[in-house]
């Protein structure tokens, strides 16, 4: 009876180790990073755009026609965010499934080599697509730094105003002009905020929340880029192992 129990335990242990050996840990980590990064980027980015429109409408533009173009652009980007969230959710699941396939085949989890020509073509296609997507997302990552840069300059100007509160003449010369950043047309009124008006804007809850949301969206874009690079590295490694095993004569099955 004891021998039977030992045999059963050994069989269960081998089965568990074989299953755990087929888990694509790199792809799993990349999937978690991708989901968290996209959630940060899309959720915080969407709300930050809404708050930006509110700030521009309240403090930098009095006429609706001055910021109507910006409102349309913000609405367009919000629709793009909806599409990005859906696309990355499906694409990350597909990459995770592909990671399970290639890892199981590379580690010969099931006791034999199970890679087909179609599977290797699919793996190479995912590698190329993920690489191109990482390059494109690098541009998105750089683009998401622009609003952070704008709010950082605005916060630095407000800090300077708080230091120079005893010299009103110098304070009034410190301004943030939204027209210089292309947010408003040059004929927008007032288009800029100066002195204590700018300092009061920086102390509002809307400004602080918008700044923090843009920083979180920027961090989410960076996490997503890291996830795509992790996907690319792990997929390339598994594909190289499959090619190596195929050349050794452990033939693929169609």
TrEMBL record:
GO cellular component: myelin sheath; plasma membrane
InterPro entries (UniProt xref): Myelin_PLP
Keyword Chaperone assigned: no
Presence of the UniProt keyword Transmembrane helix in the record: yes
Keywords assigned: Membrane, Transmembrane, Transmembrane helix
Membrane-spanning intervals of the chain: 79-101, 122-146, 213-233
GO molecular function, one term: structural constituent of myelin sheath
GO biological process, one term: axon development
Protein name per UniProt: Proteolipid protein 1a
């Amino acid at each position: 009876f004891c021998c039977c129990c030992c045999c059963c335990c050994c069989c269960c242990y081998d089965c568990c180790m074989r299953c755990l050996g087929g888990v694509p840990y790199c792809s799993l980590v990349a999937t978690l990073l991708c989901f968290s990064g996209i959630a940060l980027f899309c959720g915080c980015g969407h709300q930050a755009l809404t708050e930006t429109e509110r700030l521009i409408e309240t403090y930098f533009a009095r006429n609706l026609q001055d910021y109507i173009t910006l409102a349309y652009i913000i609405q367009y980007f919000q629709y793009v965010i909806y599409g990005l969230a859906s696309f990355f959710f499906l694409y990350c699941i597909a990459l995770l499934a592909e990671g399970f396939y290639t890892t199981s085949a590379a580690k010969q989890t099931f006791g034999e080599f199970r890679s087909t020509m179609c599977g290797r073509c699919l793996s190479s296609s995912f590698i190329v697509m993920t690489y191109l997507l990482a390059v494109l997302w690098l541009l998105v990552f750089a683009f998401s730094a622009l609003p952070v840069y704008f709010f950082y300059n605005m916060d630095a100007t407000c800090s300077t105003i708080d230091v120079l509160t005893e010299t009103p003449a110098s304070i009034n010369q410190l301004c943030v002009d939204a027209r210089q950043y292309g947010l408003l047309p040059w004929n927008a009124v007032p288009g800029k905020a100066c002195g204590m008006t700018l300092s009061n804007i920086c102390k509002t809850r809307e400004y602080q929340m918008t700044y923090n949301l843009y920083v979180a969206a920027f961090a989410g874009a960076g996490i997503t880029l890291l996830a795509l690079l992790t996907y690319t590295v792990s997929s390339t490694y598994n594909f190289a192992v499959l090619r190596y095993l195929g050349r050794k004569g452990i033939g693929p099955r169609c």
